[in-house]
Amino acid sequence: MGHPADIRSVLHTVAHALGVQATPEQWLSGLPFDVNGQTFSLQQPPGDGATGMIVLRSELGTVPQDAQLQVCEMLLRSNALSAGSLGPVAGMQLDGPGLVMDMPLPIAELSADVLYGVLDRMAESAAVWKATQGFTRAQGGTAMAPSAPATLAPAPASR
Question: Alpha carbon of 2 to those of 5, 50, 136: distances in Å?
Fold first, then answer.
């Protein structure tokens, strides 16, 4: 599927800001990359590519066989709570027991600031998910509060 030149520029800017050594073409081909210790990839939506969307995927880990029913029920509840929020949805991979968080993004409206902010917030959400074994509540029992939108800034030397 072909992508507008603008998305390549957006991906290049974000990769540079994050200190990721990957080309836009590598990201568009699904090459995994890390943000704040969380693995991400860009996925093509199903179909002929006419949707004008790209999906940002975050890998959350593998669900043990004996916990799959409980996790599936939790995912349904989590997605019901976030319905209408235009945020990421959690689910299981179609071809295995991997847990993923997907965020569809419209290519025509995608800017470097938007992508950078989505990556930052998804990495934060994934860290909370993993720390609480997948539940949508923070460790102290309080509901997760959305963080302020991130803005694109040069990557610190420590990244």
Answer: 9, 10, 36
Instruction: Classify residue 20 as left (phi > 0), alpha (psi -120 to 50) or beta.
Output: beta
29-84: pLDDT as tens digits: 899 999 888 899 998 766 555 568 889 999 888 877 777 788 888 888 877 877 77
Concatenated DSSP letters for 8-43? HHHHHHHHHHHT----HHHHHTT--EEETTEEEEEE
Q: Distance between CA atoms of 95 and 77, rounded to whole angstroms?
A: 22
The distance from CA 135 to its chain's CA centroid, rounded to whole angstroms, is 17
Beta partners for 33?
40
Long-range contacts from 136-145, C-beta under 8 angstroms, 24+ separation: 136/74, 136/77, 136/78, 136/81
With a pLDDT cut of 90, the percent of the chain lying above it is 20
pLDDT of residue 80: 81
Position of tokens 């949805």?
A: 89
Say if pTM beats, i.e. exceeds, 0.90. no
